[in-house]
Specification:
Elements: H1 2-21, E1 23-28, E2 31-32, E3 36-38, E4 44-45, H2 47-59, E5 62-67, H3 70-79, E6 84-86, H4 93-96, E7 99-101, E8 106-115, E9 130-133, H5 137-149, E10 154-157, H6 160-168, E11 174-178, H7 179-188, E12 192-204, E13 207-209, H8 215-227, H9 230-238
Parallel strand pairs: 1-5, 1-6, 9-10, 9-11
Antiparallel strand pairs: 2-3, 3-4, 7-13, 8-11, 8-12
Helix pairs in contact: 2-8
Length: 259
Amino acid sequence: MKFNFLAGLALAAGLATTAGAETLRVGAYPSNPPWEFKNEQSEFEGFEVEVIRGVAERLGMEIEIQDLGFQALFAATSSGRIDAAISSITITNERLQNQAFTQPYYDSALVMVTNQSGPETLAELSGATVGGLAASTGETWIQENTAQYGFGEYKSYPTQQGLLLDIVNGRVTAGVSDYLGVAFAAQQMTDLKIAERIRTGEQYAIMMPKGSPLLEKVNDAISAMKEDGTMAALYAEWIGGEPTEGSSTITVLPIPQAQ
């Protein structure tokens, strides 16, 4: 009896491992259109959602998307709680020290966002209260450029919506965030104004645990989606228009490495 019981446990453990290997566990920040958001049925939609679904399909894997805050995504990949994270996550050398990234698939920039009566340029923000999404590159940019522009108080927000609502209501003078995300939000929140674009050369990619055995397979799937036109079609569907010639959306690129 004891032998059979232990054998049963071993078999169950083996089946669990097999099942886990067949499911791609993905973390996503749910309030981030057009990248990822939840529809009326509480199902994830968006550009990156379709990218990761395309990856899973090419790998022959099921997919499970978990609803996580933006800042929580980094701990979830580091701990191995999830296999991948999507949420317009910029590749940075600092992040590459502790995380892995696939090749990029979108070239981005930051923007200064205010309400309609707010200042027009970064130069007008001396002494002003400025906000950013916690753990984002917008937050990092503010911290690195406070001395140059003379920003006043900095406020960190756990959600993009909270930041944008405080900008509309005048609780903060301006925010720094992802251009496309702000542009989509401004279609609904008409009191928002994109005041100045900040060209940073940012690129978005899928973030994965450092040393992940799935990294090269996921990266190869992204290459295939670029080569067969899938990525360009998703760009047209969710962002609009055609990706720029030579952009990371249609150009196969190497896996980024830490410097």
